[in-house]
């Protein structure tokens, strides 16, 4: 009888770990980016797994930064310059460490505060079978099965 409790606790722990393994993972961070500086972050991603990066400059200068993402071979898969905010989603073509960097190297006197949210993995639907349900976001009461005629503007 004494061995049943440790066994059930071990099984429960294993089930919790397996459940956690299938959930997406991610990180949110707000950080200071000094003038003439670059800050990079790294994340290991399995091949075929989706990841997304959302970022926004919260304070500083013209509220803009440069941002780029590189795959494990050093290929740039995303690059934007002087953006206030943006989103990027990608499905990893190779397994390895992906790097995303924020740069304020173009600024000589203005530091920035940058927020980002980096998510790895597909987020499971909130409800089971959600893709096959009609919801407020998938049904429009004013939708017409026939196209509307073009608008004419009197001159």
UniProtKB/TrEMBL annotation:
Gene: TMED3
PANTHER family: TRANSMEMBRANE EMP24 DOMAIN-CONTAINING PROTEIN
Protein's name according to its UniProt entry: Transmembrane p24 trafficking protein 3
Species of provenance: Papio anubis
GO biological processes: protein transport
Signal peptide positions on this chain: 1-21
Domain GOLD: 38-120
This protein's GO CC annotations: endoplasmic reticulum membrane; endoplasmic reticulum-Golgi intermediate compartment membrane; Golgi apparatus
Family that this chain belongs to: Belongs to the EMP24/GP25L family.
